[in-house]
Amino acid sequence: MFRLSARFAFLAAYAMCLQPSMAAAADDTKIARGEYLVRIGGCNDCHTPGYFFGKPDSSRFLGGSDVGFEIPGEGVFVGRNITPDKETGIGSWTREQIVTAIQTGQRPDGRTLAPIMPWHAFAELTEEDVTSIAAFLQSLKPVSHQIPGPFKPGEKVSTFMFRILPPGETAAAAPN
Q: Which terms does the record give in the GO molecular function aspect (predicted)?
């Protein structure tokens, strides 16, 4: 009887030791899936410095853009730092708050994300995909990079910007 109890205790202890490594492997799979989705989704296009000038700074991947987008009547918006930096990024956000922002456009402070952020399309992501993206973002090296803006219409802009025009409008007719 002692042998059976000892074997059971050993197997139970062994199974408990496997739990963390199995969880880590599952998390690694989720992070890898999130990285894949972030890369094919083009998140770096708006959130990585240098991307719009043809020289993305991979050391500051997703650390925030250096280019703004002007949307007439809305203002100028610059791709935010979405690394886990607590001061300049999303490091103080929970995974659930990141998921909510991606799928609904609502930040933890109640503000709505910039209109350029395609959260309407991201609302269609599966729960697995959006939580994988959040896990990947939380796994990144934090980048300390304060982003300017957003800027209200008519406010002086301190960064290079692209102007987005409604169909049929020309740059000459757009407000300065």
A: electron transfer activity; heme binding; metal ion binding
pLDDT in tens, 145-174: 999 988 998 899 888 888 877 787 776 654
> Using one digit for the tens of pLDDT, what is the confidence trace for 121-148?
999 999 999 999 999 999 999 999 999 9
Q: Distance between CA atoms of 108 and 92, rounded to whole angstroms? A: 10
Residue 32 belongs to a domain:
no
| Number of domains into which the chain is organized | 1
Entry pTM: 0.78
Q: How far apart are CA 29 and CA 16, in angstroms?
A: 21
Is 74 within a domain?
yes
Indicate whether 18 belongs to any domain: no
The full DSSP string for 35-49 is HHHHHHTTHHHHHST
